[in-house]
Design brief:
With 332 residues, the chain is an alpha/beta fold. It has eleven helices and 13 strands. It is globular and about 55 Å long. Bound molecules: nicotinamide-adenine-dinucleotide and 2'deoxy-thymidine-5'-diphospho-alpha-D-glucose.
């Protein structure tokens, strides 16, 4: 049994991780989350009260962080500003949370000698050509494109420096695009599903040729637990499930699964600096730590995700209009 502190546990992937941990282990979980626009306490309903506690606060609040680190065995750090489009609109919160917030946690990990796992993204590696036979590996050079991905890259480098300079017991994972329940409707898949539910045509940036390497959030959670359990300190692990799809294919599949014509979508203004393709080689995680993803069938996972949004409209409805109004100002 471990006492875990999960930062950002009221967000999409963090909340999926908390549900996964509490149903697959006997660990105790404390969530530290600021409840920004992206955090939602409703994502943490139904958890066992004797093993779960929620603390509202900022990861950059050194006093609060110091107090919380004193009572745990390990920290899993999900909290971040996570959306590329927002980072193009207003980069500052990305620096505050992703850089200063991570620095604050690392200083506490150093003081309390607490095991630390840092959640990061494949976007730190930049993008690949559509026909490039190579995929990202742990040795691919960093080459981030957006304010979001550059702050994530910066946070990864801080973790590496705190391992080497101060002996912090940390690991890092860089995962590809997640899908599943509890994802904010600003993101691609939930935006299009909720558009269809609302009778709005899905919106594809540019030509829709950009490729993302999709993984179910529950597979991300099992990978993180595996790294916490068996990962080598100082090591980086790439997490991916061989799920490359271009955006046009994903939109057409959503429309088909929801009983609409597959071409009933609009092309809209492209994202500035839009990364073309991400692709993960997760051989190290699979061969060295024995991890295997469980959601091999993207279409089945997507159908279950569509059902979740159909059945949980009260969870997403309060944010939908604001998101669409923001996108309209950007031509998206
Ligand atoms: P999200 O935006 O859904 O959730 C982020 C959570 O962090 C929210 O609950 C928010 O309230 C909280 N938060 C933000 N700033 C905070 C602060 N200063 N202090 C405390 N809490 C704060 O994000 P997500 O999609 O769940 O991503 C979680 C992590 O996974 C991020 O680090 C992201 O970079 C990484 N990641 C995401 C994906 C993806 O596909 N979404 C893929 C790979 C890696
Ligand atoms: O690769 C991991 C990253 O995946 C994470 O680090 C980020 O936190 C996460 O947000 C995600 O980043 P993306 O920018 O890839 O995700 P997003 O859902 O914003 O967009 C996915 C693709 O869909 C991207 O090519 C842009 C496109 N898109 C997005 C929206 C919102 C559209 O075509 N239409 C849309 O309406």
């Amino acid at each position: 049994m471990m006492r875990l502190l999960v930062t950002g546990g009221a967000g999409f992937i963090g909340s999926n991780f908390v549900h996964h941990v509490l149903s697959h282990t006997d660990h105790e979980v404390t969530v530290l989350d600021k409840l920004t626009y992206a955090g939602n306490l409703a994502s943490l309903e139904g958890l066992p009260a004797d093993r779960f506690r929620f603390v509202k606060g900022d990861i950059a609040d050194a006093g609060l962080v110091d107090e919380l680190f004193a009572g745990v065995d390990a920290v899993v750090h999900y909290a971040a500003e996570s959306h590329n489009d927002n980072s193009l609109d207003d980069p500052r919160p990305f620096l505050d949370t992703n850089i200063i917030g991570t620095y604050t946690l690392l200083e506490a990990a150093r003081k309390h000698e607490v095991r630390f796992h840092h959640i990061s993204t494949d976007e730190v590696y930049g993008d690949l050509e559509l026909d490039d036979p190579e995929r990202f590996t742990e040795t691919t050079p960093y080459n981030p494109s957006s304010p979001y991905s550059s702050t994530k890259a910066g946070s990864d480098l801080l973790v590496r420096a705190w391992v080497r300079s101060f002996g912090v017991q940390a690991t890092i994972s860089n995962c590809s695009n997640n899908y599943g329940p509890y994802q904010h409707v600003e993101k691609f898949i939930p935006r299009q599903i909720t558009n269809v539910i609302r009778g709005i045509r899905p919106k594809l940036y540019g030509k829709g040729e950009n490729v993302r390497d999709w993984i179910h959030a529950d597979d991300h959670s099992s990978a993180v637990l595996t790294i916490l359990d068996k990962g080598q300190i100082g090591q980086t692990y790439l997490i991916g499930a061989d799920g490359e799809k271009d955006n046009k294919t994903v939109v057409e599949l959503i429309l088909t699964l929801m009983g609409q014509a597959p071409d009933a979508y609009d092309h809209v203004t492209d994202r500035t600096g839009h990364d073309l393709r991400y692709a993960i080689d997760s051989t190290r995680l699979r061969e060295e730590l024995g991890w295997t993803p469980q959601y091999a069938d993207f279409e089945a996972g997507l159908a279950a995700t569509i059902d979740w949004y159909r059945n949980n409209e009260p969870w997403w409805a309060p944010t939908k209009d604001g998101v669409e109004a923001f996108y309209a100002t950007k031509g998206h």
